Fold each of these.
Amino acid sequence: MLQKREKVLLLRTFQGRTLRIVREHYLRPCVPCHSPLCPQPAACSHDGKLLSSDVTHYVIPDWKVVQDYLEILEFPELKGIIFMQTACQAVQHQRGRRQYNKLRNLLKDARHDCILFANEFQQCCYLPREGGESMEKWQTRSIYNAAVWYYHHCQDRMPIVMVTEDEEAIQQYGSETEGVFVISFKGILNVNKHRAQIEAFVRLQGASSKDSDLVSDILIHGMKARNRSIHGDVVVVELLPKNEWKGRTVALCENDCDDKASGESPSEPMPTGRVVGILQKNWRDYVVTFPSKEEVQSQGKNAQKILVTPWDYRIPKIRISTQQAETLQDFRVVVRIDSWESTSVYPNGHFVRVLGRIGDLEGEIATILVENSISVIPFSEAQMCEMPVNTPENPWKVSPEEEQKRKDLRKSHLVFSIDPKGCEDVDDTLSVRTLNNGNLELGVHIADVTHFVAPNSYIDIEARTRATTYYLADRRYDMLPSVLSADLCSLLGGVDRYAVSIMWELDKASYEIKKVWYGRTIIRSAYKLFYEAAQELLDGNLSVVDDIPEFKDLDEKSRQAKLEELVWAIGKLTDIARHVRAKRDGCGALELEGVEVRVQLDDKKNIHDLIPKQPLEVHETVAECMILANHWVAKKIWESFPHQALLRQHPPPHQEFFSELRECAKAKGFFIDTRSNKTLADSLDNAKDPHDPIVNRLLRSMATQAMSNALYFSTGSCAEEEFHHYGESYHIPVCGCNFVLVILKEFLFILIFCFLFEGLALDKYTHFTSPIRRYSDIVVHRLLMAAISKDKKMEIKGNLFSNKDLEELCRHINNRNRAAQHSQKQSTELFQCMYFKDKDPATEERCISDGVIYSIRTNGVLLFIPRFGIKGAAYLKNKDGLVISCGPDSCSEWKPGSLQRFQNKITSTTTDGESVTFHLFDHVTVRISIQASRCHSDTIRLEIISNKPYKIPNTELIHQSSPLLKSELVKEVTKSVEEAQLAQEVKVNIIQEEYQEYCQTKGTSLYTLLEEIRDLALLDVSNNYGI
Ligand SMILES: [Zn+2]
């Protein structure tokens, strides 16, 4: 029985015209399925090829995959491929004869395990195109529909994997039919750095949405299965049959050991596959170390081909042709990979340049920069030529044209800044005043960086490439030249500056926002206040005035008047901020990391001290105003350019971290309620052990870890309701409003809050307030200017980024921000290692410290060392298979025995019957030593030497009572490096050059200080121990 249908085809002719063809189309109940699992072979009347019967699943490529990746589908390794008629026709009509013939030959090829299924003739598979449905969408829908039919036709016995590039289809169909997986078959190869030889993972798009076999990443086990792909490459993966699946390893492990000794059983088998193709190579410059003389000799006769070891564990050894191996053996060297032949175990590369001596501070810092692809060469002459001049002979002045164009606030507004002491780059200033109608006017004034940085100028391109200012442990690399960042764009006191301002008119009594104004202004900041002084003024302690330079040299009368004015303004600002916060409190403001530190600098701007302290209210006042500005700008640019505005969003929190947090808290008898923001805040507040403040600190840090990093995105690539996407399982809304996570590292504390301002939910957020050090803010400033021009019906100067280009730019900025974070973390670890390096752990007091257990693993525990802010692993079983034992004197030694892990504790039992148990949150005594490495970075080793808390010797009491600050550590290391250099009087030329190249700016910056506070809190360890 045949059904007749009409099918409309729109074909494009060579002239580009569209041709409408109507074809008669007959549908049948049976078309050949070519599957050995067919329940009705007679009706299906198979002739020709049958699919192989020893596959674990069938693969159905979407039409676009057939069009674009036919070469990959041709791999003989790929088995069980079903080409749908719809996909074949898409190739025929849109890709031309050659490609179509290739596909036909493939289908005919008896050696290749693939078949054609004529889905459009099958009456249950055929779907007419719906009105308004695009050809592409219809094709994908048809293929998915046919895949589902095919699955049921084979009596649900063979899972089907439909591979597509269409992310919407993955979203839509991904979890619709059990047994039919809709995924992308390509992903990025991610090597586990702790098991670089064995484990790599590929996360496939769409694979994470379904609760089933294909739920997680695909494990690539062993080097061979990686098929010459390198960490970071975009690869195509083929799944292996289920009986070849393997589990990932869960035990703690060290980088350099193969871990065969530990004999740990891996976890449940997971989907395992192998790489069949590399779609995009992501090779970069790699820092490597040449083998030592002895190693070269052992490498055999072919001495001109040298195997070098990359600093990054995830990169395989590289073969280099050189005769310089011996001269280079003490240096860190940059190489590039050229090729990787299929017959070779190693890729080939060539020498590029020398960075510096192994173990030397500058060489190691240069290594970190190269490894994070951070290029910090000095600004070029062409770039500097675009910069304005401001010298004593040639002082910069406000130009008459700008005076005409801008709103002049110099006489009308009391503008001032509040920053940490010693801050050089002042991005933001504030103002508040009473208007004639009695209402208030609140102003936020941000440095007008885009006035000096024209789109696509040399300096603009350079800033875009850098994307951010990089803050390492002991130095920073600016995004913009210092004439801007520390001078003309720094809103210093007493000088004229261009600004971009937002001013709100607030109701005098209710502080309700009546009006908002955005625009370019000229300001002259009256005071450059530091937080403590502002707080003193707020508290009515006016004696602090002596510390404020602006009040010097004033006669008593004007001094009094000016002081009153300033005190009023700070009080009013705080009042407004309090009001905003009060509205918000019902929704639960959450302070995650309770680290409040006061920064103190001496007159040379060295960090004098960081004193843990409650945050000052004035911090929050400033933060509140900046959040308000960022939010209003986000709203403005999104309204003006709904498809091409740059906003910021937070991906959903990591649920697995939340469950770990809950489990941990349970061990201490606390209940952490992660259902909402408010419940989380409240339960964290209650989870306080009166005898051990570290417990609460650790729990808060775990909650922080659960929060994903915020990312920039273009509004055109994301539906509005996803702007603050949180996933289904963790809905933050508790009082019917939208929420946003705002992480304010720059303001000394991390808050997560929902934000209500006059009934307006803060569902849109962006970065506007720091254009000196973030390129995102530069883009946002330009968008805001364009929005203002649009409102005035004026021509928009300079082209805005299209959605596609903006999305690409966001990806670049997000990537650079990650590099900034990594380099900062790595440089901090470098200093920590250098600090401990030459200390004898057996005799030095500082190498012994108190540690707190915050996680239990199968062969060890994770420890936090409050004194140094270090987190790390301590093994309870060593490489020889011996386990830890603590005798009656509680000193530890290694003995034969076994470990047994429980939910919140781990017990070590020796063969002679002694046993010791370590619980979560136990305090133990730890010895800190350094595991030196020639080819990689040194690492800190933690060893439990007693199961009792570390007793502070009386003489050391003063030292121990306050934690060692990172700044002190950096200072000490830097000093000893300098001394060593002086003593030896060694001056290696390379190092000198490199030193100049990398030390673009010297000294400690404000942001280094602020970032330290975050570091002091706890270093991120999520990715540190291969767990
Ligand atoms: Zn059949």
Note: The chain has 28 helices and 47 strands.
Amino acid sequence: MNLRIPDASDVLQACPIVHRHLTPIPLIRSLALERHLGLPAHRQVWIKDYGWSPVGSFKVYGALRWMAEHAPTLGDRPVAAHSSGNFASGLAFAARQFGKRAILVMPDTAPKIKFQITQSFGAQVLTYQIATDHLTGIRDQMTRQIAEQEKALQASPYDDPMVIAGNGVGGWEIVQTLQSQQRSLSHFLCAVSGGGLMAGHALAIHAGFPDAKCIGVEPEGADDYRRSLAAQQRTRLDHPSSICDGLLSYDVGQHNWPILREHVPHSVAVSDQQTCDALAWLYRHHGLRAEPSGVVTLAALLQRSVDIDASDGDIVCVLSGRNIDEETFQKYLAQAASSS
Ligand SMILES: Cc1ncc(COP(=O)(O)O)c(C=O)c1O
């Protein structure tokens, strides 16, 4: 297959398109993290909290860029996609902005809040059984069937040049904020699942701070990117397993792999307990909520899974989403408290 791999110019081109619909998401300095890590005064730690987007996650960036590209030729046809829930709400938001219909296929176990946000933008949602999907392939079958029956255009939640470039807009926001304050960047931490979030960000970060180290973070039970790096080829994990419901893709996308391999040579994995601890830490120190998938980067930093000492610049940690049901949130807070 002939793939069109996006580059930094695609990210720059996506900026005005995405910002027509969204205001930039804040980059928040965390003195608490700087203290926790014992950093010298000239090094700062920043969190990019995509929980502040209109759908509570970063996914709206890529969805808006994808929709802007395809809306002119869609006519009355709907868009269809499978998603663990955050791309579903991102695409639902983007579809509404462009006056289009969206049909989403989500796992039966997705948090209620992800169904609610998606439906709040008028999208139609269907569910599939995630437990047996690795055997039945039902998720992809359903999405394809909808595309055929409804003459819908299918969008990929991560394996698409437009989605990657749109996600990169958030990365470019980070670059601009740091450059406007004459900061330098030594480490950039971001979750990797299908890889669209990190691929877009890595393009932007590399363009702005070519010497910064981009580090991927995954749950221990869903570390296909770490395995891919070790094997030097995309490696599929048949049974990804973690409380991080947004980080359970089987492998990284074909469009993402070449970008990740070039710009993200390091990946670390965190345990679900460390993720719960990070969730509780963020809430205690900043009063911020996040979903498990959103805080794996923070977990890696708090645990010092990344060697940050040999460098001198700032550190940016992406919090990718905050969509978690209240009772689950309380359960994980209790789990963190009982382990400390
Ligand atoms: C909150 C959150 N963070 C990270 C990711 C991973 O994004 P990607 O699949 O582009 O790597 C997802 C994917 O659904 C997500 O929902």
Note: The chain is about 45% helix and 15% strand.
